[in-house]
Design goal:
The chain is α/β, with parallel strands linked by helices. It is about 30% helix and about 20% strand. It has 2 domains: about 45 residues; about 400 residues, 3-Layer(aba) Sandwich (Rossmann fold). Strand 5 and strand 6 form a beta hairpin.
């Protein structure tokens, strides 16, 4: 009800004294609630600033309104919320009220999640050689995982993609810090999106994310045990070609190279013998071992380590010191001097270098109108890069300027999770020599689980063999390990339909 102007008329000399006092009391009654309301609005405003959300209805490069619900935003984590993690959230195009809620981590560490959004599991793809609104044109992806899940594409750790820090003291991250902050992010996300509190939650990702995925998952379970609010409906985790046991995964490259006929049996056996089965940590004083490893590297030097059938466009492959394939060390700085990108049809005659496709994403992400559409905070990111080279992982290094590799082996977290009511899906492209399926199966076997209904049995898509699967269990814990036939290191990028069918079945608790 509007307040009558006569209530405020204290200057009316004609009013009796008792009416003036009564009027003054009325004023006090109204002032106190208004001040209280102001404080409430101030608190609410502060909260909204801490958890900013934007509904994005259109994107440069795509004609018309988006046919799916896209939200972008920031959630602050860590002390004083100094780390601001940027995310893209796409509601399920199927049944968002009941479909799983998953977070996807792109790996690296330090790789922006637009890589997944455009090239792996996202709702959009780039139309190579086509432009619209002065940026690379976009089209819908028929195999987007958003058709069966609510997907958070998260730029983590900090200084990845559009994420940033408010203070310079927290620019460096680490395996454990990144995992803790991502777990904090997820709990805060469902707090600000309460309609997803009951949806089954899974922590998912690829490549280097294999180190942090089980740590994040265990931390979410542990937080629930300790009564942290809100309680999240964590159900399990998923890892694609996941780096897990760093030494074991690197060592498995030699056996993999032999299995796929890249090196001879004689060289494999002599290297195995001379190096005592340890190539990743080989003794540099062991001359014969060093000579063997050198011979191995000569044989695989011109092989693409992330997809052995793809053309090799990078520096010579080194089985021991090979870096993260998600990072193009020779990337071109596109913001100041955009490169001329070739039309798609020219790739028929030219050598196809998959990394060149990522340049389209870099052009798109650095466009001012794109940043405005996504509501990227002005002045927080000088240049969007596919992967932050100051976090790049190379075996043998303990740290980089912006990242500390302080977890050598995350199998212990899988062991903890195997004692919980938890589901896991681990999948590997069988043409990946970066994190070979050989090493992945080794650490899975070390968990001493029981093989159940499948033991390297084929699984099918469209009536064709899509790979092989083994199912494991212990009490309430289940794990499915699947290979994806013909896929490389980032399996969904190479075999999108097969990977989509795989996760669609797994989310639905069906056999893949």
């Amino acid at each position: 009800m509007p307040i009558s102007p006569s209530i405020f008329n204290l200057q009316n000399k004609n009013l009796p004294l008792h009416q003036k006092i009564h009027t003054a009391k009325v004023i006090i009654i109204f002032i106190i609630p208004m001040e209280f309301l102001f404080l409430l609005l101030l608190t609410s405003s502060t909260t909204l600033m801490a958890y900013s959300q934007t509904i994005v209805e259109t994107l440069p490069g795509y004609p018309g309104p988006l046919p799916f619900k896209l939200e972008t935003g920031y959630i602050g984590v860590g002390e004083d919320e100094a780390v601001q993690l940027f995310y893209y959230f796409v509601e399920s195009e199927g049944n968002p009220e009941e479909d799983p809620l998953i977070v996807w981590l792109a790996g690296g560490p330090g790789c922006g999640t637009l890589r997944a959004f455009f090239f792996e599991i996202g709702p959009m793809q780039i139309k190579y050689g086509n432009y619209m609104d002065n940026v690379p044109a976009l089209k819908l992806d028929p195999n987007s995982w958003t058709k069966v899940a609510n997907v958070i594409y998260l730029d983590a750790p900090t200084l990845t993609g559009y994420s940033y820090t408010k203070t310079p003291e927290v620019v460096r991250s680490s395996d454990t810090t990144s995992a803790s902050q991502t777990a904090e992010f997820l709990r805060k996300f469902v707090r600000t999106h309460p309609k997803f509190l009951k949806n089954p939650m899974y922590v998912t990702g690829i490549s280097y994310s294999g180190i942090v995925i089980p740590i994040i998952t265990e931390e979410l379970y542990k937080g629930n045990d300790e009564g942290l609010e809100p309680i999240v409906n964590i159900q399990g985790y998923m890892g694609g070609n996941p780096l897990t046991n760093k030494t074991g995964d690197i060592n498995s490259r030699l056996e993999y190279a032999y299995r796929v006929a890249l090196i001879s049996e004689e060289l494999f056996e002599s290297t195995k013998k001379d190096c005592n089965g340890d190539y990743a940590e080989a003794d540099s004083n062991n001359l014969q071992c060093m000579l063997d490893i050198n011979e191995v590297n000569k044989r695989v030097g011109d092989i693409n380590i992330q997809q052995i059938l793809d053309p090799d466009c990078d520096a010579a492959t080194n089985l021991v010191r090979g870096g993260n394939p998600a990072i193009n060390e020779n990337r071109r700085f596109l913001r100041g001097k955009p490169v001329k990108l070739l039309p798609a049809q020219s790739m028929v005659t030219d050598t196809f270098c998959r990394g060149d496709n990522y340049n389209y994403a870099t052009l798109w992400a650095n466009d001012e109108n794109v940043m405005k559409s996504l509501n990227v905070r002005e002045g927080t990111v000088d240049e969007w890069v596919l992967c932050n080279l100051d976090m790049k992982y190379n075996y043998g290094k303990l740290s980089m300027p912006l990242y500390e590799f302080n977890v050598q082996n995350s199998v212990v977290y899988h062991e903890k999770l195997s004692k919980r009511d938890c589901r896991a899906l681990i999948f590997s492209g069988d043409h990946d020599m970066m994190v070979p399926h050989v090493g992945t199966r080794n650490w899975i076997n070390s968990l001493n689980l029981t093989i159940t209904d499948s033991n390297w049995d084929p699984w099918y898509v469209n009536g064709q063999d899509a790979g092989y699967k083994t199912t494991y269990a212990r009490d309430n814990y289940t794990l499915v390990f699947a290979t994806v036939k013909g896929a490389g290191h980032t399996a969904p990028e190479f075999k999108p339909e097969e990977c989509f069918e795989m996760v669609k079945r797994w989310f639905a608790h069906r056999s893949i």
